What does this fold into?
Amino acid sequence: MAFKDECGVFGIFGNPEAANLTYLGLYALQHRGQESAGIASADGEKLRVSRAMGQVADAFNEQTLQTLPGHIAIGHTRYSTAGESKIENAQPFLIDCAHGQIAVAHNGNLVNALELRDELVRNGSIFQTGSDTEVILHLYARSKAASVEEALTESIAQIRGAYSLAILTKNRLIAARDPHGFRPLALGRLGDAWIVCSETCALDLIGAQYVRDIEPGEVLVISDGGLRSIKPFPPQPLAHCVFEHVYFARPDSYVFGRSVNEVRSDLGRILAREAPAGADVVVPIPDSGVCAAIGFAEESGLPMKMGLIRNHYVGRTFIQPQQSIRHFNVRVKLNPVRSILEGKRVILLDDSIVRGTTSRKIVKMVKAAGAREVHLRISCPPTVSPCFYGVDTPSRSELIAATHTIDEIRKYVEADSLAYLSLDGLRQAVGSQQTSYCTSCYTGVYPVAFPRNEHAYLQLALKNVD
Ligand code: SF4
It folds into this structure.
């Protein structure tokens, strides 16, 4: 699986250890982005921020957390879907303007950010970052609205696309979710404190209770006066990102009202019914293929075994060997277990094929470890189109399923058979009304229009290099 995660956001109101709890919340959301992490806090008077490149545990220590006093905080863990991987683009962004200080953390991608940015620049705005999120702050700073909430609502009304936002002012935590509900955003409670977070696994880590999801199109203002929910925008068709269930979210989270683990196991179960294979063992490609493999094994009556072991400790600064070692890049992350694979007909279960190069190496590695046959099963439909709503997908020309038939892909990856889950099967597993999920990367039909010119397309569909 070569998709990159997107971002995780966290916010807390009403706890004297707000920054420390945000740190822990981000730790639980680390899988959503590993390039940078940041926390902004407020003590009723002043906002402060600390941001750094790298993972949460590297970005913060006790000293840095002590520089973030206050009972309100927001945090962000980032993988860059728009904007280069550099510290300027690390969030939360903090600005001071006519409405006072404000900090914002964003998960998603705005499809009209370039358009808005061009207009803002023409009107004198000076941008500091390559991020689409900065547009929200410029709109806010320029708003003539009388109150913070009105200025914010006016700004959010102008953006289109995917956004789950955690926003901090000196005395408020504000959560907002786009009217389509692309990205998840949960509301939780820890004693008297309120929490918002991308996934419920962040609530579990700090011992908080899940209350409900922030609704699509909802702006929730949390202050000393309690919670105030506004629905300032006209309702839109729902478009929850189905890929959160297929791959992004942690299996111990609930997103869009469903247990990720249950959905993922159902993907495997339905796939086993749709595309059985004569085999001896089901082997997941860890970690993301595990839940679907459990479902596949349960449905097919075959044993599931960990025939591939993942090394979790491959860091960024990893030194490549001088001499060539076969399948090194894959082998350093995954190693086959010969005693499980030797002489066996193996169903290899993964959650997607992107370019096909990694799948090909894994199939070869499994065969080299003695597997007699390898039947590759993918727990979602073929990925044929890029994402414009916050997931870093390769361009269409790089997606093998966009340009090859399933049999051509099978031959390329050198599997004995290959089958994907059907779109109907996917929808059945998430339990969706036909319209409540975005499935654009499998259909090429997009719920929210995006700019068609090539530059804009590349900026939205690929990790951007300004
Ligand atoms: S295009 Fe795919 S990855 Fe992007 S929001 Fe839609 S379902 Fe999710």
User: Anything to note?
Assistant: Confidence is low (pLDDT under 50) at residues 461-466. Residues 182, 241-243, 387, 389, 391, 438-441 surround iron/sulfur cluster (CB under 6 Å). Residues 106 and 133 are 7 Å apart (CA to CA). The first strand starts at residue 7 and ends at 13.
